[in-house]
Sequence to fold (645 residues):
Amino acid sequence: MKFIHLKQIWEQFRSNRFFGFLSLFGMSIPVMVIMIMVLKIDLSIHPGGPERNNDQMLFLNQMKITRADGSYAWGGLPVGMIEKHFARMAPQNRLAFSASETTTMFRETNALDLSLRYTNAGFWQVFDFEFLQGHPYTRGNVKDQDNVAVISRSLKERLFNQSEVAGKTLKLDGHTFRVIGVVQKVNSLARNTYAQVWLPYTWRRHSTTTPYYNRTGAYGLTFRSSGGWGFPDIRRQVRDLKRKVNHLNDEGTRVLFAGPAQAAEIYFRAYRDPQAYKGVIMSYIGVAGKALIILLLPALNLVSINLTRIQERSQEIAIRKAFGATRKSLTYRIMGENAVLTLAGGFLGLVLAYLAAFLFKDQIFTAYFVADAQQAMIQMNYGVFFILILVSLIFSILSGWIPAMRISRLNPAYVLKGGAL
Amino acid sequence: MQTMIYLESISKVYQTRNIETLALDQISLSIQRGEFVSVMGPSGCGKSTLLNVMGLLDNPTQGKIMLEGIEVQGYSDKSLAGLRNQKLGFVFQNFHLIPSLNVRDNVALPLLYRKMANDQRKRLTREVLEQVGLTHRAQHYPSELSGGQCQRVAVARAVVGQPEIILADEPTGNLDSKMGEDIMLLLQSLNKEMGTTVVMVTHDRKLADETRRIVHLFDGRQVN
Ligand SMILES: Nc1ncnc2c1ncn2[C@@H]1O[C@H](COP(=O)(O)OP(=O)(O)OP(=O)(O)O)[C@@H](O)[C@H]1O
Ligand SMILES: [Mg+2]
Fold:
């Protein structure tokens, strides 16, 4: 397309701002809504960072206990159950468990709210942390309840500036910890790994007075599969384990595990009652369907705008035809105008989505149990954006094509005398 | 002399819901290259219809049209567009400028559909705007112009591509006699110097007399 044609598209837009903006916003708002929707799902299922390989992982973060009297309790898993059963079932470097907490660290001049995470040693092998300095703690450290801690880069920068952390200490809840490692900042949407300080789980106070098998706890588990230890093996072993635990329980008291499940399953289940949940694939189809419906709005909008506008512009088109425009060039022109508007609207939608994501982080992410939504790192899914733009381009081109073909077929004299389509 | 436009028993019937209007009735006409022809006749006698048919903007109901000895019936859309663009320049009775484009872009319209360098397009547009005395209005939009100025833009647009045939439907209708005379002079000079064939509809006897040939229409028929 010659530059002058683009210029005239701009003139066209300028001379009819109302329709121009209508199609522009008609396009950008749905794109924004879909991008935010996708952002939320995508970041929850693929938070990246240490959880970037979560397609090899199964998660078991919650359990339910029902009792004979009809009462029930939901919660994490108790540490006793993990130590007695799960730790024995899984290969040492394939099982991670951790519990998160927040605490306040008092410093000379101010107080810092911190996210803590108590973990086992396998945690560092199951997840792919990027160590900037030092190293993780070992099984020995955990067993002996050594005063060791791993901290995030952002916390290191706040506490120790740019210096090396070797020999530095950290005071938390009255105990002093040696900083033995610094890891890259973790996205707060990575719900199984996020923290600013990681400590051996043996530091976590827990009541051991009640039996481990009929109480809920605070821990979440992650299993990382391997060639010889696949998802079916893990699932079967957990089933066996549940049977064993239930044997220990009183008549009528039963333990149920919400898992082990993959990240996507956990995300989609969280929003649905068990009856409505039809599996990960159906959930994705549901999301795509929703997006399509949202996208249908600008498509219909474009079609109707095109139909009314083409009527209005029939004079212009007849004039162009009288001075040598071919049917083809007119059709291309109208479709080109649509494509330009669609592309512009799409990119505007992406910008709006970024803006909304930064302005409304809390509203977007806190609903899904994320502790520090403000710390969420936004990463748009450009694959989805590309598909959106492609689909809308097809819609918009088709919506311009039919009226364009119709009008470009007319004889100019008829239209210029005021004849209708 | 070569026949530029040849019409053979052209009829045009407008079919509306319950009446048929015979706007052109068996018109046969042959116009030579370089001729300057006026078309006269009372309102509604079919002058505009005749011009539209000659300009390939409308299809006749019956009859044969030849341009430079070639029959145009059955030409593809692309060839027709090419003929309109290269050979024909149209001045519409009610201007028909594009409201969203300024004067310069309106005038340059026929050149847009030709393979032409930007510079050349700009130069041609500038020259023709000067000829019709609208250089100072180049950036204005049609809604900001008087009827006479619109008329001159329409004339400029018709002549900018230096077509071999100019079809002008009352090009002086909205102009005072001085301005009308200027447009007439422009058409005459194109006719004399470039050998452009001009067919002009007019109600003005004085202007018609300045042309070599007058075609009289009455009720869709040619009368002499
Ligand atoms: N699209 C149309 N549908 C029906 N009838 C039409 C149409 N266009 C023109 N006519 C009729 O055809 C006849 C010729 O019209 P045309 O516009 O050619 O007249 P004209 O000679 O140019 O008149 P004027 O001098 O007023 O411009 C008129 O009777 C008119 O009513
Ligand atoms: Mg007329």
